[in-house]
Amino acid sequence: MFDLTPVTDELARVVRQVREEDLGAPTPCQEWSVADLLTHIHQFAAVFTANARKEPGHPPADLAAHWREEIPAQLAAMASAWREPAAWEGRVEAGGIEMPAADNALVALEETTVHGWDLARATGQSFAVAPEALDRLPGFFAFFGDAPFGPAVPVPADAPPFDRVLGQTGRDPAWA
């Protein structure tokens, strides 16, 4: 078990500071605007919350009208749900892939951390990654492979650990 709260709190902080004029801006996620990315964040937070609770998920289809309140609340619910020992037991499905619940928590960590960086970068904000999250992210790549989202972006061997993670996800850590 590990606690998702540090990364969900950091992403919630970033979400609350997104400006209306940022919604149409591009993101490091090719083909997604900031509004698309916010919708995806809300969706995955709902799915991972439902998975932790072993309930059917009902992710929102569009960006919620009150997204600055709803997305942070959903992220907090996700972190809370994964603090329950039962969340880590059994098997769940995410993105059409069935997996052990503990691996699903690792996917939740990766999605929250990497898309947190995406959103922060696209909106000119910082994104602090807790050391315990960085320590766990290599487990995601052990489960899903070295470049689960397409070709990796080469980064120097002496790059900071999070830059190496971003490169493995196909992101350029210098994206602006």
UniProtKB/TrEMBL annotation:
<protein>
    <submittedName>
        <fullName>Uncharacterized protein (TIGR03086 family)</fullName>
    </submittedName>
</protein>
<dbReference type="GO" id="GO:0046872">
    <property type="term" value="F:metal ion binding"/>
</dbReference>
<dbReference type="InterPro" id="IPR024344">
    <property type="entry name" value="MDMPI_metal-binding"/>
</dbReference>
<dbReference type="InterPro" id="IPR017520">
    <property type="entry name" value="CHP03086"/>
</dbReference>
<dbReference type="InterPro" id="IPR034660">
    <property type="entry name" value="DinB/YfiT-like"/>
</dbReference>
<feature type="domain" description="Mycothiol-dependent maleylpyruvate isomerase metal-binding">
    <location>
        <begin position="6"/>
        <end position="120"/>
    </location>
</feature>
<dbReference type="InterPro" id="IPR017517">
    <property type="entry name" value="Maleyloyr_isom"/>
</dbReference>
<dbReference type="Pfam" id="PF11716">
    <property type="entry name" value="MDMPI_N"/>
</dbReference>
